[in-house]
Design brief:
It is built from 12 helices and 14 strands. It is α+β, with helices and mostly antiparallel strands.
Length: about 425
C-alpha cells in the first residue's frame, strides 16, 4: 500500500527530519537541530551525490545554515508572498518549504516527510491550452493557487509557477512566467531575448509566448525526454552562498571573471567557458542588467559526470525599465551590469563594457579566439528577431518602441560602435 499523501495545508510547521532522494533513489536524511545535518544512507563513492560540494564519500555533512544546493530552489519574491498569504498562521521555515517542494524542484533532489507520500498531481495542462489563456491578474491568481502544491520549486522574484504538461512525467515540466505592474511587457521582453539568443546559436531553454503576449512558457532543461532528472546547481550555490531571505543581495556579489574561473574549475572543459562568454556577451548586447549569480548554472548526471554549463534560461532587456532609489525619488535608468566584469578592487565598475574590453575578456578569461565572431552572431540574431517582432501581434507596440534603441545599440556593438 502506498503512503498517504499530505496536502500542503497539513504539513507541520516544525519539521526536524526529511528523507532526501537523488535522481528518484533514496540518498539520505536532512536533519535540523541547532544547525543542519545531512546523513547519507551509506558511505559510497559510487552513489550520486546531493551536490557537487557534498560528495557521498563523506557520510555526514554539517552546517549552521541550510546547505546551498538545497537553499537555491527555495521560493522567493512573488511565490513566497503567495505562500505567506495562503498560510498566514504557519511559519514558512526552510524545512517546511522543502517539504512543500517535494520532488518538484529544479534539479534532481526530492524531499519527503517520513511516513507520508506525495500530494496528488494536479491535472496536466497542454501547452496549447496554456498559450490560449487570456491573462488577467485574477486568472493568474486562480491558476497559481491551483498549482501551488506542486509548482513552487523554482526561485526568482518574478511571478511564476510550474505546471505539469505530460501525463507520462509526474512532475511539473513547464515554468509559466508573467509580468507585474513594475515591469510591463516582461514576458514578451524575455521571449524576444531568448528567441534572439537561440537564433544566434546560443544554447537556450525552449520558450513560447502566449497568444495575448502576457505569459511566457519555459521548458525545464533539467528533465530529460524520458523523465529522468539532471543535477542542477547555480553559481551562487557553487560559491557556497545562501541567497534567499538575506539583506546583503549576495547574488550580486563577485564578478564575471570569478564566475568564469569557477565554471572552468567545475566543468574542467574550456569549451564551457566559450559558452559562458556567449551568454555574457548576449546579456551585454541586449542591456540585461540582471545577469547575477543565480542566472548561470551547471547540469550534470550520475556521480557528477559530464558537468556542463546550463542553457541560458533567464534574460531580459532591463535597460528599458526605470527604478527609484527611494519611494519619492527620481526615476533612474537601469544602466549597470549585475556584476563587474573583472575581479579586483581596482576594476569593480559595473558599467557596460566597450566592445574592445569585452573582447579582451573573451580572449584572456574564456579562451575565445575570435570574440568578434560571437558579437556578429548575436547582432544577426537580434536583427532577425527584431524584423519578426515588428509584425508579431503578440508583442506590445509600446514595448517595441522602448526596446528599439537598446537593441540598435546591441547590433552596433558588433561593429565596435556599441
Amino acid at each position: 500500500m502506498s503512503e498517504p499523501a499530505m496536502p500542503p495545508s497539513s504539513i507541520p510547521e516544525r519539521i526536524r527530519l526529511l528523507d532526501v532522494d537523488v535522481a528518484a533513489a533514496p540518498s539520505g536524511q536532512l536533519l535540523q537541530q541547532s544547525g543542519y545535518e545531512y546523513r547519507y544512507l551509506r558511505p559510497d563513492d559510487e552513489q550520486p551525490s546531493v551536490g557537487l560540494l557534498m560528495p557521498a564519500s563523506q557520510l555526514t555533512w554539517r552546517d549552521g545554515d541550510l546547505f546551498p544546493v538545497m537553499d537555491q530552489n527555495l521560493p522567493e519574491g512573488d511565490l513566497f508572498n503567495r505562500l505567506r498569504q495562503q498560510f498566514p498562521k504557519q511559519a514558512m521555515t526552510a524545512m517546511r518549504l522543502l517539504a512543500m517542494i517535494g520532488r518538484n524542484g529544479i534539479g534532481r533532489l526530492a524531499y519527503r516527510l517520513p511516513g507520508h507520500g506525495e500530494p496528488p498531481v494536479p491535472r496536466t495542462l497542454a501547452r496549447d491550452e496554456l498559450l490560449k489563456l487570456n491573462y488577467t491578474e485574477a486568472v493568474f491568481d486562480q491558476f497559481v493557487n491551483a498549482y501551488l502544491s506542486t509548482g513552487i520549486g523554482v526561485a526568482g522574484m518574478q511571478p511564476k509557477i510550474m505546471v505539469p504538461d505530460r501525463v507520462s512525467i509526474p512532475i511539473p515540466t513547464l515554468i509559466v512566467k508573467t509580468a507585474s505592474a513594475s515591469y510591463p511587457g516582461l514576458a514578451a521582453n524575455e521571449y524576444l531575448c531568448m528567441t534572439a539568443a537561440a537564433r544566434a546559436g546560443i544554447d537556450t531553454a525552449r520558450v513560447d509566448l502566449s497568444h495575448d503576449g502576457q505569459m511566457l512558457l519555459v521548458d525545464r532543461f533539467d528533465v530529460a525526454a524520458d523523465g529522468s532528472r539532471l543535477g542542477f546547481e547555480d553559481v551562487a550555490s557553487l560559491m557556497g552562498l545562501r541567497v534567499r531571505d538575506t539583506l546583503s543581495e549576495r547574488k550580486y556579489h563577485g564578478s564575471y571573471e570569478s564566475v568564469a574561473s569557477l565554471l572552468g574549475m567545475v566543468t574542467g572543459r574550456k569549451g564551457e567557458l566559450g559558452r559562458f562568454f556567449e551568454q555574457l556577451a548576449f546579456s551585454v548586447m541586449v542591456g540585461n542588467g540582471d545577469a547575477h549569480l543565480k542566472n548561470f548554472g551547471v547540469l550534470y548526471q550520475g556521480r557528477a559526470e559530464h558537468i556542463r554549463l546550463a542553457p541560458m534560461f533567464d534574460v531580459v532587456s532591463t535597460r528599458i525599465y526605470r527604478y527609484q532609489r527611494s519611494p519619492n525619488g527620481p526615476e533612474l535608468e537601469d544602466n549597470t551590469l549585475a556584476l563587474p566584469l573583472w575581479a579586483g578592487k581596482k576594476q569593480q565598475s559595473k558599467s557596460y563594457p566597450l566592445p574592445s574590453e569585452l573582447a579582451r575578456f573573451g580572449r584572456e578569461v574564456c579562451g575565445v579566439k575570435k570574440p568578434a565572431d560571437v558579437f556578429q552572431r548575436i547582432a544577426d540574431g537580434l536583427r532577425d528577431t527584431w524584423a519578426a517582432a515588428r509584425t508579431d501581434e503578440r508583442i506590445p507596440h509600446g514595448l517595441i518602441d522602448r526596446m528599439r534603441p537598446v537593441w540598435e545599440s546591441g547590433m552596433a556593438f558588433a561593429a565596435g560602435r556599441g
